[in-house]
């Protein structure tokens, strides 16, 4: 037996045979004690578990070897450096590394749940927005996400209260064998390169992060330099844009349908917060959800195949795209990236034809850098939280009721002038997470919708519709309605697929009659209303927010000869191509029959029929994919080469 002990190296081996479970328990305790005194192994196991949690949420992947092969090599690189260079405070460095990497995994989870993309260091530009959207962030947090911090809380408690702290520190300072550390470092470095290098060219950021590993992807975005070679300014012409868009030779303006049909009228653009197209005509157990919007779309020009084109800036991006007919930047909100440029815009275009211009938004003008953006767009005035007050606030600012009540007085004043006006009115109350106060709830939903994200969304949009109806009544009573061209649309999606739980998805399937998909998610309504011009008509052609400016210009009879634009008159179009950014992977676009989302490129991309009935089709071609990318490059190149604007600012009211 002694010989056996020497060969085995186990002093308690006889106990294993004599006691069974008792011996196994002793071995387990020894193994646990070994883990506690070897932070390299201890924290590797902890972070491996956390990486599996992140993969489960973001990539919807089950148990696989992927996190082990992609995340652990990066973690070991960091730990090897700690083993080499740390001495007395080694345990502190392990704790800091654990906290840092845990924060990255948690940020990746929460950002994906809100935007559907992988967070990068560029999102640090949004840190000042976090407190404003904290309710939205908290609403996306499933309780089990917080398990990712469990070890940190437990270790923190033990470090403060445990009598074994000194012993743990002493054991943790013991260095691992330098040869083993060197071998692990080399192997880990090779695996990191193997994970990163073959996947650099992938268009789909989510697939890229999955194939590289989240931590490798974050490091790659930091270390890789952005390569942007702008197209020379002289090569960016309307003809070049039209060619990429697939337009036929432009017609004479007078040959277009409805050209100048609303000439000389006021222009009122109403941007509805988070308003998706499925709300139009929706009834739940016999209750009409948006009766006022329904009536507007039934009696006027309605475009059901209309799609958002916003990005990180959400509502402010919608304001930018609609007022410029340019695409959003590759990253960041347009209001931050492009605010320093002298932007050709709808307000400037209309001011050149004698219009008075103003924009109305109940939030503070500093949010999303709107003050600078309104200056760049050339509005004469803006009305923000200072004007609307705080007597009836919901989320970011005054309620839609206050917005419309105070806006109507200003529009009446503007209408009394001897010139037309352009006003953009931004609704806000139906904002994520859609938990409006009980006193503003106008509808009682069936029990199956209560305490659900979808139910809260529908209740808030019912309120927004009710407030809109009162505004329209006021416009009519003040004599403004008949003299105005009214354009109304949703600014962006309200129900991201990646934010819905199983119950919410089941409710959406009940509403749609099919599984809620990406094409449904980015589909928003567009309505064009003008007394004496519009009539009940449904326009089935596809369009996007970039098309609003040229459509309005055609109706008002204003030439765009000297205004470069990436949209087209949606009323007269026969074909359209709509590049997408941010909420969908780079390279995504909407064409006549489908939404295309790339994989590494076109070949492994996915087609989603616009009908939303599932299945695959071949509607989006590789030529369209290449043209959509070139259109984005043309827009990025053009706006980046515009001259810097003068410091004059629009007046605050």
From TrEMBL:
Domain of life the protein comes from: Bacteria
Main subcellular location of this protein, as a coarse class = membrane
Query: Pfam families per the record?
Result: Sulfatase
Show the active-site residues: 315
Which parts of the sequence bind Mn(2+)?
273, 315, 491-492
Which CDD domains does the entry link to?
Answer: LTA_synthase
Q: In which pathway does it act?
A: Cell wall biogenesis; lipoteichoic acid biosynthesis
Q: What parts of the sequence cross the membrane?
A: 40-59, 65-85, 92-112, 143-160, 180-198
Its Gene Ontology cellular component terms are: plasma membrane
Q: Report if keyword Zinc is assigned.
A: no
Q: Which family does it belong to?
A: Belongs to the LTA synthase family.
Q: What is this protein called?
A: LTA synthase family protein
Protein species of origin: Paenibacillus sabuli
